From TrEMBL:
MF (Gene Ontology): arginine-tRNA ligase activity; ATP binding
Source lineage: Bacteria, Candidatus Yanofskyibacteriota
Residues of the Arginyl tRNA synthetase N-terminal domain: 3-84
UniProt entry tagged with the keyword Transcription regulation: no
Cellular localisation: Cytoplasm
Protein name as it appears in the record: Arginine--tRNA ligase
Enzyme Commission identifier(s): 6.1.1.19
Subunit details: Monomer.
Main location (coarse class): cytoplasm
Length: 565
């Protein structure tokens, strides 16, 4: 709705003052209107007038255009306030109810967006940072698809580099075959840790690791076979966790090794064109013109780095897909790397795609410290999933002790993952997030389960009601009914802002506020007991439309809407 009002204003003032920046706001006090704008301040400043005078001129000029939709008032301080008419809200309610997928847009038609996540590393467990990347990346992809974009979900993982020489050396020395069969990723991690522990007292091991990686690069059959086995087992484990999370399948799955054959030609090209130069035996791209330190392409020992591989991957994406944008959903700690990558891409004129680093912060425990195991290690993603689902199961059993074990498991999985995902997405991604396990599952607070519970509550009313008609929507005059009809109008804006800002917290907040308004309505209005059939059916129409919108919104966040909790 905000965008509708903004477009009307922008179209009108374009000939007067050109393209200017102004805001459409939601006043904290409903007596000041459903929406308000500061556009009069912007125009008045340009024309040397008083804001109230300009606001009055705008009101007089636009009132006929907005006549069906809203009335306008000028506040004493110059804000222009909009009051939506009941007839307009009632009409829009029926239109929204009839839409198959309310909130869907066409702004992305014919445009491609590549979204890279979660950047896992082969031979290591998926950790909590990868969990954040997966949750954010999957939800962003859902949002862009809803806006009509052709989204390519890109799983780009680390499967190349000197660390694989160390792992192969460790594999040859200390592999426990039985442990590898039972828990491949766990055994890989043990081998990697053991290598570093042994290398602390035996420096020759580092040379052995370098030699094994050199053999791998040169195509040694044994090392290639070991590396392929490690890669395959890791990818199986990643896929298993993605399935547990319920995230959508990837459209592209590529590792750094897929660009191995392109690295030498790329380096030769960069040197030939004068983009890369030697520095203390290493090869760098000088980015001083961008105010950045040099990007390292190749170490003095000849080993390439992931900057080189990322440039190769970026070139491949742009050449193959010609995307409008490429989003990299990667932690804050990699900010410098992406600044360097994007600067190098501009210098190399790789294409016109908008390159965006969607940064996210750390995960903190309830004590405000970085979430870690007792040994101070990074927490594995699956440990987090196991814990939140187990806690959810306890709550589900307490609330519904008569549930079968299978039903309890299904609900607990959905509620647990709903709490986990919403806790992440309701906060700005740049911020560190706190894992307050109880708050994540709170059925009365700003949580995923609260919204899921609200949906289930509305679904229960509709199930009890059975068949119904639209009723007489002109009878929807209660404040709680008006609040719901008005809130429904803001759903498309919430989706659009998520795509524009690369954040999901606005959409999450919208769903919480819609659920909160629905619960207030539920407490104040006895729908099924209403003896006026036309009004009862109209109220059921409100409930059905709100429930459908909550379900669609939860789906965008990657959260399941349950009929029963």
């Amino acid at each position: 709705m905000k965008q509708t009002i903004k477009k009307l204003l922008r179209d009108y003032i374009a000939d007067l003052v050109g393209d200017v920046s102004f805001e459409i706001l939601t006043p904290p006090d409903p007596s000041l209107g459903d929406y308000a704008t500061n556009v009069a301040f912007v125009i008045a400043k340009k024309e040397g007038k008083k804001p109230a005078e300009t606001a009055t001129e705008l009101k007089d000029a636009l009132e006929s255009t907005l006549g069906e939709m809203a009335t306008m008032q000028v506040s004493s301080n110059g804000f222009l306030n909009f009051f939506l008419k009941p007839e307009f809200l009632q009409k829009r309610l029926l239109e929204i109810k009839s839409e198959a997928q309310y909130g869907r847009g066409g702004e992305g038609a014919g445009k491609k967006v590549i979204i890279e996540y979660p950047s896992c590393n082969v031979a290591k467990p998926m950790h909590i940072g990868h969990l954040r990347s997966t949750i954010i990346g999957d939800a962003l992809a859902n949002v862009y698809e809803t806006l009509g974009y052709d989204v390519i979900r890109w799983n780009y993982f680390g499967d190349w580099g000197t660390q694989f020489g160390k792992l192969i050396a460790s594999y040859k020395r200390w592999l426990d075959k039985e442990a590898f069969e039972n828990d491949p990723v766990g055994e890989m991690l043990r081998l990697y840790v053991k290598f570093h522990a042994e290398a602390a007292s035996n420096p020759e091991l580092e040379k052995e690791g370098q030699a094994e990686f050199k053999k791998l690069e040169e195509g040694d059959n044994e090392n290639r076979k070991i590396w392929s086995e490690l890669r395959e087992e890791s990818l199986k484990d990643f896929d298993r966790i993605f399935k547990r999370l319920g995230t959508r399948a990837f459209d592209q799955t590529k590792g750094e090794s897929d660009y191995e054959s392109e690295l030498k030609p790329i380096i030769a090209y960069l040197q030939e064109k004068g983009f890369a130069r030697e520095s203390e035996g290493a090869l760098i791209i000088d980015l001083a013109a961008h105010g950045l330190p040099p990007a390292l392409l190749r170490k003095s020992d000849g080993a390439t780095l992931y900057m080189t591989r990322d440039l190769a991957s970026l070139g491949d994406r742009i050449k193959t897909y010609q995307p409008e944008k490429i989003l990299y959903v990667v932690a804050n700690q990699q900010a410098l790397h992406f600044e360097q990558l994007f600067a190098a891409a501009r210098d190399l004129k790789l294409g016109d795609a908008g390159l965006v680093h969607v940064k996210f912060g750390m995960v903190l425990g309830e004590d405000g410290k970085k979430l870690a195991t007792r040994e101070g290690k990074v927490v594995a993603a699956e440990e987090v999933i196991d814990k939140i689902v187990a806690l959810a199961r306890k709550k589900v059993i307490q609330k519904n002790p008569d549930l079968s074990s299978d039903e309890a498991d299904k609900i607990a999985n959905s509620v647990g993952l709903g709490g986990l995902k919403y806790n992440d997405l309701k906060q700005h991604p740049h911020s560190d997030i706190v894992f307050d396990w109880d708050a994540m599952l709170d059925l009365s607070g700003n949580s995923g389960p609260y919204i899921q519970y609200t949906y289930a509550r509305l679904a229960n009313i509709l199930a009890k009601a059975g068949a119904y008609s639209d009723g007489d929507v002109s009878m929807l005059v209660e404040p709680s009914e008006r609040a719901l009809m008005k809130k429904l109008l803001d759903f498309p804006d919430a989706i659009g802002e998520s795509a524009k800002l690369y954040t999901l917290n606005g959409l999450a907040l919208y769903l919480y506020e819609l659920a909160h308004a629905a619960n207030q309505f539920y407490e104040q209005v006895r729908v099924l007991e209403d003896d006026n059939n036309d009004r009862k059916n109209a109220r059921l129409t409100v409930i059905a439309t709100v429930a459908s919108t909550l379900k669609q919104g939860l789906k965008l966040l990657g959260i399941e809407a349950l009929e029963r909790i």
